[in-house]
Amino acid sequence: MRRTLAFLPILLAFLLLAACHTAGDGPIPTAAPTASPQVTAQPTPTPEPTPAFTNPLTGLPCERDLSGEKPVAVMLNNLQQALPQQGNGQADILYEVLAEGGITRMLAVYQDPSAVGLIGAVRSARLYYWQLAQGHDAVYIHAGGSPEFYTAKRNQGAATVDGVNGVYSYADSGIFWRDRERIEGHYYAYEHSLLTSGKAIATILMEDGLLGAHREGYAYEMTFVADGTPVGGQPASVVTVPFSNYKTGVFRYDSGSGFYLAEEYGEPYIDGNDGSQVAITNLLILQTTCTVVDSAGRLRVDLSSGSGWYACGGRLIPITWSKGGAQDQLRYFTQDGQPLSLGAGKSYVCIIPTSREIIVE
Fold this sequence. Notes:
By secondary structure, the chain is an alpha+beta fold. It is 14% helix and 30% strand. Strand 4 (93-98) and strand 5 form a beta hairpin.
């Protein structure tokens, strides 16, 4: 009897458990196995195609082959009261040289001017600026010029694009026009008002046959590397370049962008088209002899050869340079005589008297 009573609690517990298990509509659920997460294959991003060509003046990628085509070189007014210039920030190479009385002018060289907006104010020619342009086999664009320049031009029978004399000086040529309010908030003297544009240059000068293929046998010989920072040399965070008692240029290295930012007259050197500060990869300073040749104080600038400095990537080294004849291109060399390679990017070339010394900080 005790055995039967002892068994009853076990039997009751079993019956209760069975009732719980059969109370639903189906069998006792069991835990489902954890499924592995479905991984969706992500498409591989298509890399941006690398342009097949490089700009011969900068070494930077471009969409079409420009190596066999003439660039244009435009004279820019650099008097303080003529600033800001326009289109200067888009130049592939800027040359700055003394004109007379301590003032300087810029020669802005564009391999492909078609995408450049307004360019100006356009100013008069000097023989040595034209020789710099000839070294690029460039179409030279200016507004008037010195007697020495016009004599050389006649003797060579050469064609230039002149906004003061000749066929392009007429308004219906479509190349030049004057705008004394060319920058909002400024009103310029007449001599600071002459403009052109990249579109006008590219369209009209191509139609007229001045733009197009280089002269036979010409090729720009500069080489470029991804990082042009010179080996050795000295740190050059700020380079001060004195052209004269009137004009000094300052170039401050911005390590974030890798560019030298240009200043003049104590202010950022800006492009009036968009207000951006002129930023360049390569800074070249060339020393040479500058001699006064007439009562107006005009100069003769020796472009045969000399010494100078090269700054890129925040460092600076001494260099030598040579040009030779009017149509020869400038060539740069390290002190051991090897050709200098520039960093891929825009260049600013300062040509100063041998009596002036740069300051490097």
